[in-house]
Amino acid sequence: MPASPPPLDGVRVVDLTSYIAGSYAAMQLADLGASVIKVESLEGDSFRELPGFFGWNRGKRSLAVDLKTAEGRGIVHRLAERADVVMENMRPGVADRLGVGYEPLSAINPRLVYSSVTAFGSSGPNADRPGFDPIFQALGGIMTLQGFGGPPVYQRTAPTDYYTAALATQAILAALFTRERTGRGQRVETSLLRGAMALQAGVAIDYPTKPTLIRDNPTYRLYQAGDGTWFFLAVGNQTFWVKLCKALDLEDLANDPRFASWLARLENNQALLPLIDAKFKSNTREHWLELLAKHDIPAAPVQTVAEFMQHPSVHHHDMVHEYDHPEVGRLRMMGQPVAFTGTPTRDPGPPPTLGQHTDAVLRELGYTEAEIEGFVARRICRRPPQA
C-alpha cells in the first residue's frame, strides 16, 4: 500500500521566529510534515552562528528578505495569504511595526493561526523587557530547585525554551483543530514566563502543611562508584525501595520506620545517605548497574550527549539522523521524537543555509524571474552565494 502522508501534510507555516523557543516550535511542525518557510533577515537568524541552530531549524526552507521595506513586507503578506500558520517571537509590538502582526495578516487571511511567543507576555508588567531561558530559570525558581538548598544551578539545556516551544506547538495544533470546526483562525500566545511556571507544575504549589522537599534524597540522586565513575539511582516508589534494600543486602532497612516512606527517607536522609553511599563505593559502576538492572531498579550511567547518541535504544528508534550539509559537512542530529502508526512522519531534511530557498519560494508566490532578480539587486531579498 502507498505510504500515508505525515500528520501535518499540506499545512503551510510562515516562520518569522529566531532563537530557540520560536524556532524549535516551528521545527516541531516541520517534523510532523508541515511545509515551513523560515523568513530571515538578510543577515540571518542571530543564532545561526551557534551549533544549536541546526537542532532548531531542520526541515525548513529559508527565505531571506528585508521586512523593513514595503516590497519585503509584501512578500510576507503574499506568504500569509496562502499560509495556515504564521509564527513570531519578537518583542511585543515589533511585528506590528514591521507590518506582519496579527491584525494585518488576519485581515488578509481570516483562517490564519497566528502564534506569538514572548518573554513576559504581550501585556502587563515587564512586557517590553527582553528575556532568555536563563533569566526565567533564575526568576522562576528552577535554579534554586536544582541547587537542593545550596548554590543555584544553571541548566544549560534551556528547559524553559524547549518547554515553551512545546506549549506553542500545542496551542497551534489546538487552534488548527478548532479551525476545522469554526472555519476561522485565531491568535495564540505563550511566553517563557508561562513556560517556566508550567514546567514546574509539580512544585509550583503551596498549602499550609506542604512538606519541605528540597533535600538530598538518598534514593533519588547521583552516586559515585568505587572506580570514580558516576551513575544516577532513581528509586521513585516504595516497591523499588524494597527491591533496592534486597539488592544491596540491606534488607533490615526496608522495615526501618525511619525509612518507611518517600517523605520519611527525606526527613532522615542524613542517617540513610552514608549507608547507601558506602555500599556503592565498595564496587565499580558496571557492577552496580548490572546488579540494579537484575533487580529491576531504575539507574543509569552519567555520560555525555555524544555517548547517549550511541545508545542502542537511540539507534533502535532512529533518533539520530545524518545529512550532508554544505556548510559543516556530515551533520548528525536528532531524529523525529514521536511516532505514528497510521500517518508516519518523514525525515524533513537538513536545516537550510541562509536564503537557500529564496528563488524557489518567490517563484511559488508567482514572482517572475525579472522581479526576483530585482529583489536581489536592490537587497530586498538574498540568495546564497552558490545559487
Strands, helices and their partners?
Blueprint: E1 12-15, H1 21-31, E2 35-40, H2 52-56, E3 61-65, H3 70-82, E4 85-88, H4 94-97, H5 102-108, E5 113-118, H6 133-139, H7 142-146, H8 159-182, E6 186-191, H9 192-198, E7 220-224, E8 230-234, H10 238-247, H11 251-254, H12 262-267, H13 269-280, H14 285-294, E9 299-301, H15 305-308, H16 312-316, E10 320-325, E11 329-334, H17 358-364, H18 369-377, E12 381-382
Parallel strand pairs: 1-2, 1-4, 2-3, 4-5, 5-6
Antiparallel strand pairs: 3-12, 7-8, 8-9, 10-11
Helix pairs in contact: 1-8, 8-9
Explain what this protein looks like in three dimensions:
- The chain has 387 residues and is an alpha/beta fold.
- It folds into 2 domains: 12-202 and 318-382, Crotonobetainyl-coa:carnitine coa-transferase, domain 1 (Rossmann fold), CATH 3.40.50; 220-304, formyl-coa transferase, domain 3.
- It has helices at residues 21-31, 52-56, 70-82, 94-97, 102-108, 133-139, 142-146, 159-182, 192-198, 238-247, 251-254, 262-267, 269-280, 285-294, 305-308, 312-316, 358-364, 369-377; strands spanning 12-15, 35-40, 61-65, 85-88, 113-118, 186-191, 220-224, 230-234, 299-301, 320-325, 329-334, 381-382.
- It has a 7-stranded mixed beta sheet, sandwiched between helices.
- α1 (21-31) links the parallel β1 (12-15) and β2 (35-40).
- The two termini are 38 Å apart.
